[in-house]
Design brief:
The complex is a heterodimer. Chain A is of the alpha+beta class. Chain A contains 10 helices and 12 strands. In chain A, α6 runs antiparallel to α9. In chain B, β4, α3 and β5 form a beta-alpha-beta unit. Classes of the chains: A alpha+beta, B alpha+beta.
Chain lengths: 340, 186
């Protein structure tokens, strides 16, 4: 029996044990669409009785699932459950925002974030997963915003009105959650922002690179850059401070290999955690594209960068040589310590 | 090549000592969620009572290898397998262990799986049969693919096995995929 009487307070929601009146409210706000969201038929569905909701709430409370009623504006709007598997240090998450007035307004995302903090910090879990109907795009988007990633499509897992439907399996690991909350903290304490590259950033971005790696590198040419933007789904992030670009990072993803290149922070803005946040964003995006690991090249004398990558969990491969062959017209400049 | 090298039959009390030996062998449980070393006859008796309960919705079988698939000849008990019925009644999860190591690599697992698929889709009317395999269990995954399972995803670092986090592949075969296979055979 792991039932807890904990309450968790968010900005707009309160997660608390079920109480009197919840079953009535749950039955009152019910709509046929909510049935569909959770894998039932929207057609011919009947409003549940207060008694059946009462039974459900009691059953959840009496089970070994960590369950909470969700309250907003002083009223019950839904419930959530987190079932823990001790041997896997894993949790299985489910949520129902039953009051349609609270759909599409970020409540699900806020609840998911609170639950993840509870799962990883309080319960010490290692992984949280969930299943969501593949057609429930709004729910999927909400889980992705909270940091869950799609791990698989479970084909034809249930039927709605005679049609077989797929379930998505989604999960987030503790280290992914930690990287995300790190990004949140850094952004809150520093005045810089990290955003996706825009074509108008080209001059400022290449200025930082020229300062770091020298002039005239062919991969910095505008055409080469355009080619990357068009043909590679890897992200480019810039860090911006007071309208000025002070840091860059590139990710590259060809469906097999993910690389991080061109991590650079303007010398005046170092030691503020900018590189760390850029790395976290790049890794998150590469992972979302499907990469299961990423690699990078760094000069063996670049002590600062090596320490950063060590702290981020990168390990060194001592058994690999970095080899380069210059084509006939190749330029000397392309063989710097951080190619790409 | 016919693969009628096995026969499925219900478990008996007499099978239980074999399970204690097999499940305590780390080689046998290498690619399973089971941890060897603490499996007791007492525990296996409890398991047997649970699966023998009329309320139990799982289907469990002992696997016998039959050199000559002749009626009435007792085969050699080499492992067990099961379908764990989902509460919807429309899908089930598959699990298997070949515990007799002298019988590895002979296609018995594949043959047992084909039998189970027949029972699951024809007799039980299932829509979907799925299983979980450790992502590094390449031999197992190849066997499942051969029988018609498709990999649907990988649960990252989903299980702790001997101190290591293990990625777990999710695989499934649908009724229509299995039916298409039966048609192309004839």
């Amino acid at each position: 029996m792991q039932q807890t009487l904990t309450t968790i307070e968010g900005e707009r929601v309160l997660l608390r044990p079920f109480q009197e009146g919840d079953a009535e409210e749950s039955a009152r706000v019910w709509t046929p669409e909510s049935n569909y969201m959770y894998g039932g038929s929207p057609r011919g569905a009947k409003r549940p009785s207060v008694e059946s909701r009462q039974r459900r709430n009691e059953q959840m409370t009496g089970s070994d699932e960590h369950c909470f009623a969700i309250e907003a504006d002083g009223r019950y709007i839904g419930f959530l459950g987190l079932r823990v598997n001790d041997s896997e240090q894993g949790g299985s998450y489910r949520i129902g925002i039953e009051n349609p007035e609270y759909w599409g307004r970020g409540y699900g995302t806020e609840v998911a974030r609170l639950v993840l903090r509870y799962a990883f910090e309080t319960l010490g879990l290692h992984r949280v997963h969930l299943m969501v109907a593949a057609y429930n795009v709004r729910a999927r988007r909400c889980y992705e915003k909270a940091g869950f990633r799609v791990e698989g499509v479970l084909r034809e897992s249930f039927q709605v009105d005679g049609e077989w439907q797929d379930d998505l399996l989604m999960a987030i690991l503790k280290e992914e959650w930690e990287a995300r909350s790190l990004v949140g903290q850094e952004l809150a304490s520093c005045p810089f922002t990290v955003r996706t590259y825009r074509p108008s950033d080209y001059e400022q971005v290449t200025a930082i690179w020229r300062a770091e790696w020298g002039e005239g590198r062919p991969m910095d040419a505008a055409e080469a850059f355009d080619y990357k933007l068009t043909n590679d789904r890897g992200p480019i992030f810039v860090a911006e401070l007071n309208g000025r670009i002070v840091g860059t990072a590139l990710g590259s993803w060809d469906g097999r290999w993910a690389w991080v290149t061109r991590l650079a922070v303007h010398p005046d803005y170092r030691r503020r955690g900018i590189a760390k946040v850029l790395m976290a964003e790049i890794e998150r995006r590469l992972a979302a594209l499907g990469a299961t690991f990423t690699a990078l090249l760094v000069g063996t004398e670049n002590k600062g960068a090596l320490a950063l990558y060590d702290s981020l969990g990168y390990s060194r491969r001592g058994d690999v040589a970095f080899m380069v062959k210059r084509f006939a017209d190749g330029e000397e400049a392309c063989c710097g310590p951080q190619p790409g | 090549m016919p693969d009628a090298t096995v026969r499925l039959r219900p478990h008996t009390e007499a099978d239980l000592p074999n399970y204690v030996i097999w499940l305590n062998d780390p080689e046998v449980t290498e690619f399973t969620a089971l941890e060897s070393g603490n499996v007791t006859l007492e525990g296996e008796r409890g398991w047997f009572a649970a699966i023998s309960d009329p309320g139990c919705r799982d289907r469990n079988w002992a696997i016998e290898a039959c050199p000559e698939p002749a009626e009435g000849v007792d085969g050699r008990h080499i492992g067990n397998c099961a379908l764990h019925l989902h509460e919807s009644g429309e899908m089930a999860g598959f699990g298997i262990i070949i515990g007799d190591k002298t019988q590895w690599g002979k296609g018995h697992g594949t043959a047992a799986l084909r039998e189970v698929l027949g029972i699951g889709f024809e007799e039980m009317g299932l829509q979907r049969i799925h299983l979980q395999a450790f992502a590094h269990n390449l031999r197992g995954i190849r066997c499942y693919e051969k029988v018609g399972f498709r990999q649907e995803g990988v649960m990252r670092r989903a299980r702790l096995k001997r101190g290591q986090w293990i990625d777990v592949a999710v695989m499934a075969i649908l009724r229509e995929e299995w039916e298409a296979q039966q048609c192309s055979k004839h």
